[in-house]
Amino acid sequence: MRIAPATYLVASGAQGCSLTHDLDCNCWLFDSGEGLVLFDTGAGLDTDGIFSVMTENGLTPDDLQFVFLTHAHGDHSAGARELQRRTGCKVLCSRLTSSLLDEGEPAFSLDVARAAGVYPDDFVYTRPSVDALIADGETLAIGDLSIEAIATPGHSLDHHSYLVRRNDTAALVTGDAIFHSGRIIYQGTYDFDIRVSAESIRRLGNCDFEILLPGHGFFVRHGGRRHVDAAILHLEKLMTPRPIEFIAI
Q1: Is the pLDDT reported for residue 103 higher than 80?
Q2: Could you tell me which residue ranges the Metallo-beta-lactamase domain spans (predicted)?
């Protein structure tokens, strides 16, 4: 689904547009002019569905060159290994995300999520091979894209957002750091920290961007910065950002 020039939503689950498997997060794809760049991979249960969405939009899955992970949670990273196997793409993430994947499921809360019924009992996570690490503040040039990694922990220990610039346009890929209307996810995992999340949101308030691309729910084509500002307004009033409420479907 094309949402801006050379910018596509290619996966989205029940808490989004239902393009692909219900467990998938929003996965954002950019055509760099020299290959395709994907942010997050979904839960790995509907790779064919992702490829179908790409094909419907005139994109060739074999042109996928790079995958950036926002964090290790299964709905964002579990599809990476199969994408590697089928396209040969390279996977990039933070050093901490890579370390958590090495440690196994308890390190990125997949065990408790499965126990809580978020994932089926037979859900199997296959770790991708990480081809390169990207550090906070580092900027990579890929084709006509400039991609800056921004550490935004709080939702999880390892969370990173990405500021993607092309010419005079900037899109902020926020993963689960912040959503439409300035909302966040409150969750009972060991590494969720509302105070750390608040500091990350303040940091995103320093970014100049127009397009907001969150990990679930609505995206914003114009005026994306307003949604971060809405959360910061709550923080300035000594309140926490409002929770996003996903409806069980």
Answers
A1: yes
A2: 24-216
* The predicted structure's pLDDT at residue 3: 97
Please compute the mean of the pLDDT values over residues 230-244 and round it to a whole number: 95
* pLDDT of 69 over the 70 cut: yes
Chain centroid to CA 165: 16
Spatial CB neighbours of 235, under 8 Å, sequence gap ≥ 6 = 198, 201, 202, 241
Query: In b/e form, how buried is each residue of 88-101, taking b as 16+ CB within 10 angstroms?
Result: ebbbbbbebbbbbb
The per-residue DSSP string of 199-220 comes to HHHHHHTT---SEEEESSS--B
Residue 150: strand pairing partners: 161
Tell me the C-alpha distance between 151 and 72, whole Å. Answer: 14
Portion of the chain with pLDDT greater than 90, in percent: 98
Does the model's pTM come out above 0.90? yes
Instruction: Specify whether the CB–CB gap between 17 and 8 falls below 8 A.
Output: no
Domain spans of the chain, in order of start: 2-236
What are phi and psi for residue 198, nearest 5 degrees? -60, -40
The CATH superfamily holding the domain 2-236 is Ribonuclease Z/Hydroxyacylglutathione hydrolase-like (3.60.15.10)
Q: What single DSSP character describes residue 57? A: T
pLDDT digits (tens, 9 = 90+) for 203-225: 999 999 999 999 999 999 999 99
